[in-house]
Amino acid sequence: QVQLVESGGGLVQPGGSLRLSCEASGNIASIFVWGWYRQAPGKQRELVATITSGGRTNYTNSVKGRFTISRDNAGNMVHLQMNNLKPEDTAVYYCTANYFIDSYNTINAWGQGTLVTVSS
Q1: Closest residue by Cα to residue 9 from 96, 120, 113
Q2: Structure confidence by residue, pLDDT tens digits, 71-91
């Protein structure tokens, strides 16, 4: 089993930066994809960025060039560096981790979420 805890959210002015962190505990060796999702008020949850255990990254178009997802060498933490933040980035951000529970089956773990508010 994998547990995730996010940190780093807060209030920032437009154009500012924030760095979100996600720490995993449990069977972290079984994680093969990490991700960050976000959910703005009244909107569906959307995928923001992913990073595989091999380091391959992917971003939704609206954050390309502004956000960077990275993973610590120890393999138990993932970060989302968010630059040039815009009001439309305001949302609750969730960390996820896809991991194997046996040779064939996987589960997606979720953190509790951290609020990012971009406002002047």
Answers
A1: 113
A2: 998 889 999 999 999 999 999
